[in-house]
Amino acid sequence: MSIEIKNLSFKYNNDSEDVLKNISFTINDGEWISIIGHNGSGKSTLSKILIGILEPKRGCLYIDNTLVDNDNSYDLRKSIAMVFQNPDNQFVASNLEDDIAFGLENLEVDPRDMREIIERSLSKVSMLEYIDRSPEDLSGGQRQRAAIAATLACNPKTIIFDESTSMLDPQGRDDVLNIIKELHKEGKTIITITHDMEEALNSDRIIVLNSGKIVKDDSAINVMNDSEVLKDSGLEMPTELYLYKTLKEKNYENEEVLKALWQLISSK
Ligand SMILES: Nc1ncnc2c1ncn2[C@@H]1O[C@H](COP(=O)(O)OP(=O)(O)O)[C@@H](O)[C@H]1O
Ligand SMILES: [Mg+2]
Q1: What is the pLDDT of residue 267?
Q2: Is the CB of 233 under 6 A from ligand 1?
Q3: Residues 81, 160: contact at Cβ < 8 Å?
Q4: How far, in Å, CA of 151 to CA of 134, rounded?
Q5: Atom 5 in ligand 1: which residue has the minimum CA distance?
Q6: Nearest ligand to the CA atom of 85
Q7: What domains can you pick out in the chain, each with its CATH number?
Q8: Alpha carbon 184 to chain centroid distance?
Q9: What are the distances in angstroms from CA 57 to CA 46, 85, 176?
Q10: Atom of ligand 1 at shortest distance to CA of 39?
Q11: 208 beta partners
Q12: Each residue's pLDDT tens digit in the chain (268 positions)?
């Protein structure tokens, strides 16, 4: 699914300043984009506009080359789903099967097909064995995986992950990141909103937001290399890259070490 935003501005209150300021960018079908920026830079506002919780005040949104308007908004945005920071805000039922079924009912899926879809979605995130369990009995990482399964059951073409790993322990974070990588390989369009620079390094492209403006939109490695933009935006370079650059600058001569570090960076 391709998404294009043109000259988009947004503010919450009429008398306050714009939270998003004349933003334009394109996300190509199957691309994995990270949106990074410090707290309050407008990342969540932007994602809410993409899924339609908020409507832009000025500017246009195109989904698969069609201009989104009041009449087609619901249908076009049906294929974009969001996984939130806190999975607990997403559960509505007392066990995983009913919870996922609830979402499918909203989409008017035939009840006879539901069990298969639910099982397939839970398998995808290695949670099938918990199908009868309550979200309360699960760890944070398991809850987030269950929330992702509920999203996958609705078969979205684009998935936005808004700080979806930030509340998880390292294991939970790795599990979710591996699921994102797999979904990307399968051809889903992925938008990850993150504070985690190592996580952002995995994506194809990074958009840096600073006070509601796009200050950089480039390949992941080029953005990570731009220490000035990162510093101005209150962000830090990933540790491996910092180490690599520092060693290079100091003319460190052990090529083996430099090569190994570079492989670590580029394999993300
Ligand atoms: N519901 C709201 N009403 C008014 N202002 C808001 C609301 N939500 C967010 N904001 C403001 O909009 C700006 C951008 O917020 P947000 O999109 O949540 O940023 P981020 O996700 O990058 O931290 C912030 O200044 C924030 O205070
Ligand atoms: Mg946010």
Answers
A1: 74
A2: no
A3: yes
A4: 17
A5: 12
A6: 2
A7: 3-220 (3.40.50.300)
A8: 11
A9: 12, 26, 34
A10: 23
A11: 36, 216
A12: 999 999 999 999 988 899 999 999 999 999 999 999 999 999 999 999 999 999 988 999 999 999 999 999 999 999 999 999 998 888 999 999 999 999 999 989 999 999 999 999 999 999 999 999 999 999 999 999 999 999 999 999 999 999 999 989 999 999 999 999 999 999 999 999 998 888 899 999 999 999 999 999 999 989 998 989 999 999 988 888 888 888 888 888 888 888 888 888 777 6
| pLDDT value for 178 | 95
Element of type H or E holding 123: helix 111-124
Phi, psi torsion values for 90, nearest 5 degrees: -105, -15
Decide: 44 in ligand 1 pocket, CB within 6 A: yes
Would you say 41 and 209 are in contact if contact means Cβ atoms under 8 Å apart? yes
**CB of 41 shorter than 6 A to ligand 1:** yes
Any idea how long the chain is? 268
How many CA atoms lie within 13 Å of 177's alpha carbon, on the beta-carbon side? 20
CA distances from 210 to 39, 95, 153, 199, 207 (A): 9, 40, 34, 19, 10
Distance in angstroms (rounded) separating the CA atoms of residues 29 and 81 = 15
The reported pLDDT for the residue numbered 239 is 84
Q: Give the angle 35-36-42 at the CA atoms, nearest 5°.
A: 80
Residue 180 in tokens: 């994102």
Report pLDDT for 268. 67
Q: Which long-range contacts (CB under 8 A, 24 or more apart) does 131-135 make?
A: 131/95, 131/96, 131/97, 132/95, 132/96, 132/97, 133/95, 133/96, 134/94, 134/95, 135/87, 135/88, 135/91, 135/94, 135/96, 135/99
Structural contact between residues 102 and 93, judged by C-beta atoms closer than 8 angstroms: yes
- What pLDDT is recorded for position 57? 86
Ligand lying closest to the C-alpha of residue 207: 1
